[in-house]
Amino acid sequence: MASFGKQTAKVVFSGIQPTGVPQLGNYLGTIKNWVQLQQDPEAQRYYSIVDLHAMTVPRDPKRLKQETLEMAAALLACGIDTQKSVLFRQSTVPQHSQLNWVLGSITPVGWLNRMTQWKSKLQQQTNGILDGVNEHSLNVHSSAAQGLLTGLFTYPVLMASDILLFRASHIPVGEDQVQHLELARDLTVHFNKTFRTNLLVMPSYLLTATKRVMSLRDPLRKMSKSDANDQARITLADTDDQIRKKIKKAPTDSLSQITFDPKSRPGVSNLLSIYAAVRNIDPRVAAQEMQTLANAQMKEMVAQAVVDEITPIRKRLGELLDDPQYIEDELRKGEERARVVAEENWRQIAQCVGLPA
Ligand code: ATP
Ligand code: MG
Fold this sequence. Notes:
By secondary structure, the chain is mainly α. Helix content is about 50%, strand content about 5%. The protein contains 13 helices and five strands. Helix 3 packs across helix 12 (about 295-320) and helix 4 crosses helix 7. The protein is globular and about 70 Å long.
């Protein structure tokens, strides 16, 4: 293994929460990219099912366990190859929590207070509780914040620990995670300065071309697993018929030609983006391809492309879910490999900060 401070290898790290079967946005925005990154024979890849992060929104323990299994099955079904990537559950590598404590102990509260994801949770909480509260007046001392859980506030520190524990250099994330990654970068500098070392490796992010797939009911909102309306998303478990129906009902507009213009034509442009992402082409090229089609014909083409992509994944997902022991075995193999690396890296970090190594 390369010694600290001299790393030249490309190390990819990324995590996904086990909060349900992935939707098309997770797949096109993140998972497809994870699969494509496997083509690089030089890189090491760590893909983590971040069950500790998922606990920041409390759920029934049985559900957490089941959804962790489903997420593992979905990742394998999408093409994560355990010969090429280390696939593991975050909680089975205890050094994540240990580094989380060390980093939390040097993170100023003010840094976390600036995080927009935290602020938006806080704002959701204040709606209906306090009138006239705006984002700028919200902070950890606001009365609205008092009911929020500490884990949600310190979430970005654990995320930084995930990345820095594996000395990761490349982090594929969606646009919504860029600010958290900036915090991980700030913590790298802060740790190295505080402990006069060059131990922690500076991570950089890899953004996918499909940063945001929008809802099929309201193209101004992002598609999400937790949307109350299941017509708003396509999941990797949807049947061909469900996929076709959902796309058929997606809002468009009455302009005569198909053009890509997300600002003035969000509905049409979202469908073009989906088609383009599936086919690995630019959405403008997709628009040219479909220029003269009527909306209904365009939707049929988009639906066919999505069906072609998802059908084999859904079938494989079903087979895998029939064999939970196989999934468990695959995860355990990955977890052993992850622990070997994490133990060695943690040993050096512990030594650096004065803990028993
Ligand atoms: P939840 O509603 O539970 O937050 P989610 O659908 O937002 O679920 P996450 O587990 O939070 O999913 O995100 C997993 C990954 O998918 C992240 O890298 C995130 O950036 C990406 N992602 C989520 N939604 C979209 C979307 N609509 N388009 C593109 N990428 C997305
Ligand atoms: Mg999310």
